[in-house]
Write a structure and sequence with these properties.
Order of helices and strands: HHHHHHHHHHEEHH
Distance between the termini: 204 Å
Number of helices: 12
Number of strands: 2
Shape: elongated
Largest sheet: 2 strands, antiparallel
Structural class: mainly alpha
Helix content: 40-55%
Strand content: under 5%
């Protein structure tokens, strides 16, 4: 071994350490931006969005829905610029009342009303309608109001008239049934005799009178039976009372008929005479009596 080899130091192995690269520790932090908006508190009702000054006002308190408030505001806006009308009271003058009536549509005078009152059931009195128009004008009614009241009155009258007609027809049917049961086969003859006698001696307006139960006087069974009884007595005795004299035979009856009809200036031939209808009915009755005695 050479000296060079012996004198050169031997290599000592050195452990080399490679420094490791330290990874930085990552920390996650949540940063809240100062500009992030916070949610606003939810209002309990639409009124909470109004400032306290206006919210407590009684004009706002009376509304329960915002739509109602909006509608009220719109209507109030529409009224701006329109005519205003002060409502009168008990202390107002007649002129103040008349001013209001005029603004509400009352015609200038009672003659200016255009009222319609036509009926096929009851007659409408023109004089009564004129009086109604006068009163309507005094009360300040406009044409629509007056027409409505008149229409109500007309309908009421028609209803009463129709009900009266029903009552009359019902009473007639009941009277007819009662008399048919009592008279049997003599019903037609007795009705004819009673009717002729009644019409010859009683004014038609009296026979048309309505009793409390709705029965027409001329249709009441007792009235009909009464006249039938008198007619029967007159037939049996051959007596009939007339304005001139009493007659008791067929010959006398015919003579009385001729006397009435031969008087050309009498009521029988004069339709304008107040006793014309009565005279005609009298002749009819005399003929009926004469024929029944033949």
């Amino acid at each position: 071994m050479s000296n060079e080899q012996t004198t050169q130091p031997s290599a000592v192995p050195v452990e080399t350490t490679t420094p490791s690269t330290a990874q930085p520790e990552t920390k996650t932090e949540t940063t809240i931006s100062a500009t992030t908006e916070q949610p606003a508190p939810v209002a309990k009702s639409w009124k909470d969005a109004i400032s306290q000054e206006y919210r407590d006002d009684q004009n706002i308190q009376k509304f329960t829905e915002i739509d109602a408030l909006a509608k009220s505001y719109i209507n109030a806006t529409k009224m701006i610029g329109q005519d205003k009308m002060v409502i009168p009271n008990n202390n107002s003058t007649e002129d103040q009342w008349n001013e209001v009536y005029t603004k509400l549509g009352r015609p200038e005078s009672a003659e200016k009303y255009k009222l319609e009152a036509k009926s096929d059931v009851v007659p409408m009195d023109e004089g009564a309608i004129k009086s109604f128009a006068d009163q309507s004008h005094k009360l300040g009614l406009n044409n629509k109001q007056a027409q409505g009241i008149l229409e109500f009155y007309k309908n009421s009258m028609e209803g009463t008239a129709k009900q009266a007609q029903v009552d009359t027809e019902t009473a007639q049917a009941q009277a007819t049934q009662e008399l048919r049961q009592e008279w049997g086969r003599d019903f037609e003859a007795k009705i004819k005799q009673a009717g002729a006698l009644a019409q010859a001696n009683i004014n038609a307006d009296v026979l048309d009178m309505t009793l409390q139960n709705g029965t027409r006087l001329g249709d009441h069974p007792e009235i009909i039976k009464g006249f039938a009884k008198i007619a029967n007595m007159m037939s049996e005795d051959k007596i009939i009372s007339t304005e001139s004299e009493s007659v008791n035979t067929v010959k006398d009856l015919e003579s009385e008929i001729a006397s009435i009809m031969n008087n050309r200036e009498g009521p029988y031939w004069n339709k304008k005479h107040p006793d014309h209808d009565k005279s005609v009915q009298q002749v009819y009755t005399l003929r009926e009596m004469a024929n029944s005695n033949k």
